[in-house]
Amino acid sequence: MSPFEVNEEGYFGRYGGAYVPEILQPCVKALRDNYRAIIDSEDFRREYDALLRDYVGRPSPLYRSEALSALHGCTVYLKREDLNHTGAHKINNAIGQILLARRLGKSRIVAETGAGQHGVATATVCALMKMPCVVYMGATDVARQRPNVEKMRLLGAEVVPVESGNKTLKDACNEAIRDWCCHPEDTYYLIGSTMGPHPYPDLVARMQSVISREIRQQLQEKEGRPTPDYLVACIGGGSNAAGTVFHFLDDADVKIVLAEAGGEGANTPRTAATLAIGSEGVLHGSRSLVIQDEDGQVIEPYSISAGLDYPGIGPLHAHLVRSGRARSLAVTDTEALRAAYELNRLDGILPALESAHALGALHRLKFQPSDVVVLTLSGRGDKDIDTYLAHAHDFD
Ligand SMILES: *Cc1c(COP(=O)(O)O)cnc(C)c1O
User: Fold this and answer.
1) Band (63; pLDDT cuts 50, 70, 90)
2) Exposed, middle or buried, 70 (CB in 10 Å: 0-12/13-18/19+)?
3) What is the distance between the alpha carbons of residues 365 and 131, in angstroms, rounded to a whole number?
4) What confidence category does residue 144 fall into, taking pLDDT thresholds of 50, 70 and 90?
5) CA Rg, the chain, in Å?
6) How far apart are CA 285 and CA 206, in angstroms?
7) How far is the CA of 354 from the centre of ligand 1 (A)?
8) Catalytic one among 90, 151, 170, 255?
9) Distance of alpha carbon 286 from alpha carbon 256, whole angstroms
10) In what order do the strands lie in the sheet with 108-113?
């Protein structure tokens, strides 16, 4: 077995597990006992693959950026998840999980969202599958991601603003879990990232693994070999990164770089750099790294990017970084913004603020001319246009 695969008890190394209240244990057990058989079944694969192709628009292109290649002195490819239906990688997972929810006999969907991308993806697949949908979203994020809130409501979802904590993703997760506890019989919790109790981290990684399956094929066609020298992805909970690395974990030559949200700097209180400053703890159903004080109280995170503004990290990624398989970099707001304007000017692609952290990480790395770098552009920047306009004069 690969050292990076989840074990029988739901752990990646020392991270993972399923820490849930008693009321949810039957739900989590039913999911755990059935998910692999369902998602590996021919019937599921057929429906999932057809929707990824015809509804999402996959395979997403692997685009060789001449401008970034020249800038960084190597070959840089962008894996264009920004071109997916609804504008990010989140739809890959939402489609997979709603097909799973139907096969588990569930009739109602709840979800959490930060930037709103997962909420939009979930509301979209609920419209497609005619299932009622409740999305919990921190009130701060409701304010800073308005267009996504309007989209969810137009799709027929109920968006519930969450007023607890600092009113962001962590607080939305708490509310979604609370709702699930109240309706364990009929409700499926459609989680948006590689976090939560086992088997969610593994399930979501598998739903996103289509990204690395395509990268291998596309690199084989374009470079004559299936593996790059570097894989670079941004990381909030870790789903686009998990999808990017999934089929490369046992290729030891492929270097993995995870760009987390440094905020105003990992050494300041205004940060969401969990891999840099987190310590071991349990958050939202799994044991992983958490930004917390000595008493185990979660410290409110900060990032300019709503999708990365989270004080935890998926257990797979904690394991990858702590075991030395992957390296993490805390990319600041300023570095991310600069990289976003740069890509927009150089390539005519406005990335999501989250993805801009991965682009910012490129500037911290030293490449050889022969290096092939694949960077996952997790989403498009339309939702962040107000932030980009507000800061544009800083980077003229
Ligand atoms: C949600 C989101 C992220 C962060 O989530 P991961 O699960 O870490 O991928 C990154 N980029 C975009 C565009 C997002 O919408």
Assistant:
1) very high
2) exposed
3) 45
4) confident
5) 19
6) 19
7) 6
8) 90
9) 23
10) 158-162, 133-138, 108-113, 187-189
